[in-house]
Amino acid sequence: MTPRVYNVLFLCTGNSARSIIAEALMNKLGAGRFMAVSAGSMPRGEVNPNALPIVEHLGFSAAEFRSKSWDEFALPSAPPLDFVITVCDNAAGELCPIWPGQPMTAHWGIPDPAAVTGTPTEIALAFADACRQLTSRIDLFLSLPLETIDRLSLQTKLREIGRTRDEDAA
Q1: Residue 168 lies in a domain
Q2: Coil, strand or helix at 69
Q3: Choosing from 24, 54, 81, 88, which is the catalytic residue?
Q4: 88 is catalytic
Q5: Which of 50, 64, 72, 166 has the most CB atoms less than 10 A away?
């Protein structure tokens, strides 16, 4: 029997950095169990160039990623979503579309590495830190017994992951 593949949508306002990184991480770490996509409420229209080395390091081509509107995933023709996770504080407070399939939702706020100014090294460190935080949270998510946990407990666990500090995840 083929295991079920869960669809995950990562949301951020601009869909240019954090949600793109989360999409790549989930598709790499959850390969075979999860299919991740990302979108934004007000997409920038391009992926932040500082996110591209991360997705490429994960084994993906930069051309596989684009900044897109969350409207694409609210259409009746969109794949049914199992999980919708916001990774920026702005998107968490916005009125979201009605998602097909009544997915579980959670907020996993991560500081915006695209907002960091400074030297190229400081900016790269901010992106690496965002990637590290997202990796910790995705690892926690992947460890959940999705096939056996009840819906209410799963929703609680998803929200707890968003409140997890890095030292708690270690």
Answers
A1: no
A2: strand
A3: 88
A4: yes
A5: 50
* Catalytic residue flag (residue 96): yes
Distance CA 108, CA 105 (A): 10
CA-wise closest residue to 53 among 125, 2, 104: 125
| 94, 69 contact by CB (below 8 A) | no
- DSSP class of residue 86? E
Tens-digit pLDDT profile for residues 36-64: 999 998 999 999 999 999 999 999 999 99
With contact defined as beta carbons under 8 Å apart, do 66 and 95 qualify? no
The CATH number given to whatever domain includes residue 135 is 3.40.50.2300
Residue 1 lies in a domain: no
Scanning the chain, the segments in alpha helix (DSSP H) are 18-29, 52-57, 89-93, 120-142, 151-162, 166-169
Amino acid residing at 67? S
Angle at 103 between CA 100 and CA 104, to 5 degrees: 160
pTM comes to: 0.91
Strand partners of residue 124: none
131 catalytically annotated: no
